[in-house]
Amino acid sequence: MNWRVKRVEDLLASSTRSSLPRALGATQLVLLGVGIMIGTGIFVLAAQAAQKAGPGMMVSFVIAGLVSAVTALCYAELAAMVPVAGSAYTYSYAVFGELLAWLVGWALIGEYAVAASAVAVGWSHYFVGFVQNFLHMRLPTALAGGPMDGGIVNLPAFLVVLLVTGLLYVGTRESARVNAVLVAIKIIALTTFIVLTLPVIKSGHFVPFAPLGLSGIGGAAASIFFAYVGFDALATAAEEARDPQRNLPIGLIGSLVICTIFYLLVSAGAIGAIGAQPIKDPATGHALATGSVALAAACNLDANLNALACSGEALAHVLRQIQWPKIAAMLGVAAFVALPSVVLICIFAQTRIAFVMSRDRLLPASLSSVHPRFKTPHVMTVVTGLIVACAAALFPVGQLADVANAGTLFAFMMAAAGVMWLRRSQPHRHRPFRTPALGVVGPLAIAGCVYLFYSLGAFTQIVFVTWCGVGGVVYLTYGRTRSPLAQPSECTDMRARHADADR
Predict the structure, then answer these.
(1) pLDDT digits (tens, 9 = 90+) for 488-500
(2) CA-to-CA distance for 35 and 260, rounded, in angstroms?
(3) Which domains does the chain have, with CATH numbers?
(4) Which of 90, 217, 273, 315 could form a disulfide linkage to 56, CB 3.0–4.6 angstroms apart?
(5) In terms of pTM, does the model score above 0.85?
């Protein structure tokens, strides 16, 4: 096994070569986090959570939020100490060595590509609603969903990814400004939803609270964990943050607090307004699996048409049921306009991780080239955009979101373990931000990630293991021999620097 470790000093030095302009302040970082977290997880996946956990989905949001909170505290220490692009990949390189760092980076590349595809598919549901409600047109079924959704190709999802890719090609500062506007639209939409639903909450809609027991709550938490992955995207922006030691912890923790408050209020409003009981098989009494043909057929029955679990645009659906059709239409427009910001940040994060891996020569050097005019990693942006667009055109949102979560949980677990190891191995290193009560927070983060990964479906776990296997082959056949740490001259220079530092 390859345990070649890159020292923190070497990581910081490498960031000065092919560096990206520092254009993001604390406010922009918070907005980036809010922008990616408030998206498909609450606008679309609330329906999936209702089918898995019923009203207990509120506890699922709390569980996912707590796991994210303790992990964010670990991330904040690492991001402030090592303000270099690459997120958990970079941290793992400094702690666990090249092989595990590669696997983390490979998982994150897959995670963000799949996450961007999932959000694009979720957006397409609102786009179809927009076309029907405002333009009074119906998009052909063949072009409104992929093969697993009864169509041929999801054309709206494909096109929105290409548009976002073009924006990221132009520049980070321009993308951040657009994101700020889109975040404001989402905040206004969710605030309106909360104001209209909380007054009509009925306590009876919360009974039974956990119809599928703790396993249902755990399964829903594993799925809607997708709604909390934004702070990892902030860590990938470390090289583009101004004063990262101060601003990254603010962005990480601030965005998480804001989003958790919104999630709890929105889920309480949705459940209390119309109920959230899962659709069950009349013959067995068991809840139907999300994304299954049986659930799709049950949702077409008159008795289930108004169920939260059957809606592709969950929040707009709730408002229509409580007699706010015009506001529901406006919320649908808000989601239609604003959800592309989540696609933007997912692709942004993925390209920055691949950028750093390319700079480390574990991926082809051409992927880390910076555009002479726009100062963006343009090659990787185009490659990522095309892959994400094709995945969004073919696969359903639920499966994509769960697969993305698997990679996220692996990276989060490694980051939590990394900060604990660095505290022991390098206790005197300057830490602008220190994770409080790390002896408790670190193990909780690791245990929480393991629990949520276990709660994912077997199919998702198999896909993740397969993806890691492919990554291992790529590393052994390409990255292992091309790594600077594999070159004798590089190793000699690095040993000399290490000796000087030790003296």
Answers:
(1) 555 445 444 444 4
(2) 13
(3) 8-458 (1.20.1740.10)
(4) 217
(5) no
